[in-house]
Amino acid sequence: MSWAARLSAGVFFAVASCFAASKADRIDPSERFFTTNQVVRLSIRLDAAARAALQLHPRAYVKAVVAEGATEYGDVGLHLKGQYGTFQKLDGKPSLTLNLNKFVQGQNFHGLDKFHLNNSVSDPTYLTELLCREPFRQAGVPVARVTHARVEINGRDLGLYVLVEGFGKTLLRRHFTDRRGNLYDSEFTHDVNEPLRKASGDGPDDHSDLQALVAAAEEPDSRRRTTRLDALLDLDRFQSFMALELMQGHFDGYTRAKNNYWLYGDPTSRKMVFLPHGMDQMFVRPQGPVLPEIKGLVARSVLQTSAGLKDFRERCVLLFTNHLLRLTNRVAELQARLRPAVAELGTNALAQHDRAVSALQRRIAERVAQLRRQLLLPPLVPVVMAPGAEAWIHDWLPILEQGKASIEPRVTGEGAKSTEVRLLPEDEPVTAVWQGRVCLPAGRYQVFVSVAADQPVFRGTTRPVALRVWGAAPLQVESMVRDPQHFGMLQIFEAGREEPAEVWIQCEFRTDGIPVAFQLDPVKLTRIE
């Protein structure tokens, strides 16, 4: 099914499900649980032995009793979860994983075999996990469902939690006709070329499926790379996956940080599917570029091809228009749903929640404005160059990702634009991007950037300036330090389509200490062959 058809099908399903709730309940009782808009109340009991075990080994399963009203579930597998910033011990407000059939075969909670209770310490709105997963589902990307819970452990009220469907049989059954494929957990910042934990599946245990995906992603020929990736990866879903991660500012997801994702090898299509995860810190840097630094190997390999960048930009425009423009209104709807439960926690909790939601709405509005500025652009005129010819890149867009900075273009006598970038760190580091677009016929090109700083910042191995090219295959990258205040960057790349294709060129400037001003000379493009 094409991505456009999948989007239409997602809208149809959302409408049709309203008229077929009773039938859906019989097929999947978990569907009703996630659509009733009620905050479930859970009471968890742990005996002394279980509490002691969690103190010593917090990520190892113990047995717990979980009660929802008069209904009790015995011998539920429970362990603590979370990473840096979110993990809390049992005597705090711990995040939890609950596995209903870990010790009791076939036991489930409203049709769920596994779910998580997230403390949401990184998201005081308790909304982004639910809000930001909805566009993935609407775009046909498999994603876990979310609701909310009020939780107590051994009579101690821990307040509000975000309840997230676990990556288990229930989730796989909903999204795939065959759930026997390999399901991989990225754990913490592991890319596909690093050891991933196999959570389930009847496929090979030797990671040969991952190795094949890595080999395709590392294929040097851009056309062959696209063909090889398309045979192993659901590229259609992956484009939506990348677009939504980046547009919603998921800086801790796969695309930006090779983190917070799961990967499923679908036996039916024989393709790998990326599943998003961990969306509790979203829209944190709303002014950032659509394409920031990309750390995920597969994402980088797709975006460094002409076809990949073209499809990505088109997908961004479609999803932005159809889904992201509605997010502010959706926040208001979700706030109205959750507000009575927050009010039960007291007037201070309600006031803090209202302020947090208002801040989220402001960030979303800023992000929408920034996406419109970066995505809804006029078409470019192809730059036709003979081998050996030189040209200046004129079409630049200043983007401030983090902190305070001023970016001012300056026109030289040749008509090309030099740039002054002043970074002004106060309470946080500063990152600014000078982004250019150019439409190029197939061929090999060289882009050269010369930068001068008013401080001796070009020392050591860490550079405060970076050069990136998207939509073309990088062939050679070099940097040159003339002295601590002068720096040059050169990148040779290949534009590999028969027709002229759009290429994005980015100069990124960073500082986390002293204020610094950079002078960027006019950026020169040379056709090599």
Spell out the blueprint of helices and strands.
Layout: H1 3-19, H2 21-27, H3 29-35, E1 40-45, H4 48-56, E2 62-68, E3 71-81, E4 95-99, E5 114-118, H5 128-138, E6 146-153, E7 156-165, H6 169-175, E8 183-185, E9 197-200, H7 208-217, H8 222-232, H9 235-247, H10 254-257, E10 261-266, E11 271-276, H11 297-303, H12 306-322, H13 327-343, H14 347-375, E12 390-392, E13 396-402, E14 405-411, E15 417-423, E16 430-440, E17 443-453, E18 465-470, E19 473-483, E20 486-495, E21 501-511, E22 516-520, E23 524-527
Helix pairs in contact: 2-3, 7-8, 9-12, 12-14, 13-14
Distance between the termini: 39 Å
Structural shape: globular
Main sheet summary: 8 strands, antiparallel
The total domain count is 3
Total DSSP E strands: 23
Number of helices: 14
**Helix percentage:** 25-40%
Strand content: 25-35%
Radius of gyration: 25 Å
Average pLDDT confidence is: 91
The class by helix and strand makeup works out as alpha+beta
Query: Residue ranges: pLDDT <50 for 5 or more in a row?
Result: 6-25
Question: Features of this protein?
Answer:
eight-stranded antiparallel β-sheet; Jelly Rolls; seven-stranded mixed β-barrel; globular; 3 domains; 529 residues; alpha+beta; 31% strand
Overview of the structural elements:
With about 525 residues, the chain is α+β, with helices and mostly antiparallel strands. It has three domains: about 5-170, no CATH class; about 180-320, no CATH class; about 390-525, Sandwich (Jelly Rolls), CATH 2.60.120.260. It contains 14 helices and 23 strands. The protein has helices spanning about 5-20, 20-25, 30-35, 50-55, 130-140, 170-175, 210-215, 220-230, 235-245, 255, 295-305, 305-320, 325-345, 345-375, and strands at about 40-45, 60-70, 70-80, 95-100, 115-120, 145-155, 155-165, 185, 195-200, 260-265, 270-275, 390, 395-400, 405-410, 415-425, 430-440, 445-455, 465-470, 475-485, 485-495, 500-510, 515-520, 525. Strand 14 and strand 15 (about 415-425) form a beta hairpin. Helix 7 runs antiparallel to helix 8. The protein is globular. It starts with a helix and ends with a strand. The relative contact order is 0.09.
